Amino acid sequence: PSSEASTAFTLTPIGRIASDYPDKFGIPRQPGLASAARATLTLAPPFDDPLTVRGLDAFSHLWLTFIFHQSPTRWTPLVRPPRLGGNAKHGVFATRSTHRPNRLGLSLVELVKIETHHGVTLHLRGHDLVDGTPVLDIKPYLAWAEALPEARSGFAPAPPPSLPVTFSATAEAALLRRRDGDSLRELIRQVLAQDPRPAYHKNAQNTSERRYGVRLRDVDVRFHPSASNGIEAMHVEDIV
Ligand code: SAM
Fold first, then answer.
1. How many structural domains is the chain composed of?
2. Count of beta carbons in the 10 Å neighbourhood of residue 26
């Protein structure tokens, strides 16, 4: 390799994400799949000068580049996209895998509001980032240049199928007791519709007796496959 190619760059996060997703498990695989997911991005000094975001509120959507900080630094040339059931192998650069050289992530998110009273905090929706994710850069999204619906999209030509989601009476009662009940119900619906069970469980027979859990905001959502080939949210409990 030439000396130029082997030059290492040091990148400093400009801020961190606080997210509706406390764990990696259950997060939809791309940002638009759960539009109800909320996050804040708080900028760190010296990037927290309000001048850095002057004019940004004129944009509805942003690109975030970030580090998959919860992924191993180890990577392999071939990965198994979950979208293909974990069976087929594709080149790491032919996928959006989190196990990649440099661990760089790229997500298109909705910008809801910017707060500049104490430093800078961006309020975001429709993201796919775990709590604590370090963000490297923010760029405004330019729909005229970057939206190409006719582009070929390889093994992921359309959004993944989404399952019908129902709520037990117990889960509904728990949601009704919460101030954020409506937005949490919508988030649970969007996350469970993506069927967050491990791929090898989805295809297995007789799994309806199994119980699964996913953590969203400050709750544990217990769910299972329902009789009608959907998912039922059974319990919504405070994380203890
Ligand atoms: N939209 C981004 C991209 O294309 O670079 C991320 C796609 S990646 C397939 C989405 C998954 O990354 C989520 O389902 C979540 O489990 C995982 N994830 C999110 N934040 C992460 C982090 N900070 N470290 C490791 N994995 C993360």
1. 2
2. 21
